Amino acid sequence: MKMKILHETILKHPQQNIEKYTLQNTQGYSVSFLNLGGTITSIMTPDQNGNFENIVLAYETAEQYLENPYYLGALIGRVAGRIPNAELGRYKLEANEGEHQLHGGPHGFHQVFWNVQTVEHDDSAEVILTHFSRDGDGGYPGNLEVQVTYRLDCDNTFTIDYEARSDQDTWLNLTNHAYFNLSAGSRNILNHKLTMNSEAIAEFDEDSLPTGKWIPAKETPFELKTGKLLREAAESDHEQMVKVGNGFDHLFLFEQSELNQVTLEDEESGRKMVVQTTDPAAVIYMANKMDTKHPLKSGQAGGPYAAICIETQRIPESLLIPGLPTHKIAAREEYRSRTSFTFGLS
Ligand code: FUC
Question: Which of 101, 126, 306, 333 is the most exposed place for a label (fewest CB within 10 A)?
Fold first, then answer.
């Protein structure tokens, strides 16, 4: 039996319609996303009783994606994370968090209508999203061609491949900002267990900007080798944890291996997700700063600890580690990274 790709228009808009695509495998797992921002709106997986539910946060209405204030499920670029004073070298970027830039600025990739090309194979369903970002877009140098491939296979793995190339030296750090809740929103994430080989976290100042220093994870609440409940992070009195609203909202550096891994488990539903990436780092964000102003799909609660984001990425130049890729890319260099999410039961 062939894998399926379904398609519907969910909002007619004078500029461009919002189209929704669903990749569905033969076991009933599915991933839905929009042409706008490549935004993931649903990932349907079964719990231990075989009930399929959506394990990512989504807004109540399609119109909300035109703004997407929480960056729910969106592709993030050109540069994920915060850029101090919205300045890179001699380039002045568009600021959108006080003087700083967050997640590519107000016209970042989450606001882009991507071109979509669907490809159905026997054992996977694939969609290729492409975007051409002009020299000077948002203040960034270089004409940039970006291609993101979303693929769901018959073994319940969803893979994101990022590829890009610029005609000038520039900065680039691509990720996806899905908010996961393995209980499908019926509880917060404080009883979810997180396991990863974290080597260090980037120290943050009051504005969550990196100070340039790495803090070793060993023997701190950021050591997650044997797994920790997220509740421990929320209740920790570690200065870095309190600073960002009690919990994780930090750039974690992996102990490097060929594929770096993060595992998330929810005992009550039995769901488990394994994230593997070629990227050297990931921002782990427990939605500590999320408000409840923007309504979510019925059955989903917003606010602190509503979900967790695992934003795999590169590291900023200010935190340079020899041998690891930073945000800086050279003219005509091939930017490539892959992150996969495998869904199953514990
Ligand atoms: C994450 C966090 C930020 C921010 C954003 C919406 O990437 O690092 O603090 O709140 O998401």
Answer: 333
φ/ψ (deg, to 5) at 318: -65, -15
The preferred substitution site among 101, 102, 246 for testing ligand 1, maximizing ligand atoms within 8 Å of CB, is 102
What's the length of the chain? 346
- Cα(176) to centroid of ligand 1, in Å? 12
Q: Tokens 């993060």 map to which residue?
A: 262
Residue from 309, 310, 312 whose mutation best tests the ligand 1 pocket (most atoms within 8 A of CB): 309
Residue 342, token pair as written in the block: 């495998």
Other Cβ atoms closer than 10 A to 246 = 18
Residues within a 6 A CB radius of ligand 1: 70-71, 208, 249, 283, 285, 289, 309, 311
Judge if the upstream peptide bond of residue 151 is cis by omega within 30 degrees of 0.
no
Per-residue pLDDT of the chain (346 residues; tens, 9 = 90+): 678 999 999 999 888 999 999 999 999 999 999 999 999 999 999 999 999 999 999 999 999 999 999 999 999 999 999 999 999 999 999 999 999 999 999 999 999 999 999 998 889 999 999 999 999 999 999 999 999 999 999 999 999 999 999 999 999 999 999 999 999 988 999 999 999 999 999 999 999 999 999 999 999 999 999 999 999 999 999 999 999 999 999 999 999 999 999 999 999 999 999 999 999 999 999 999 999 999 999 889 999 999 999 999 999 999 999 999 999 999 999 999 999 999 999 9
* Distances from the Cα of 241 to the Cα of 34, 126, 162, angstroms: 33, 38, 30
In 3D space, the residue among 225, 228, 260 whose CA is nearest the CA of residue 241 turns out to be 228
Tell me how far CA of residue 16 lies from CA of 41, 74, 241, 335, in angstroms: 18, 17, 41, 29
Close Cβ partners of 173 (under 8 Å, ≥ 6 residues apart): 77, 78, 79, 80, 81, 313, 314, 316, 327
Predicted TM-score (pTM) of the model is 0.97
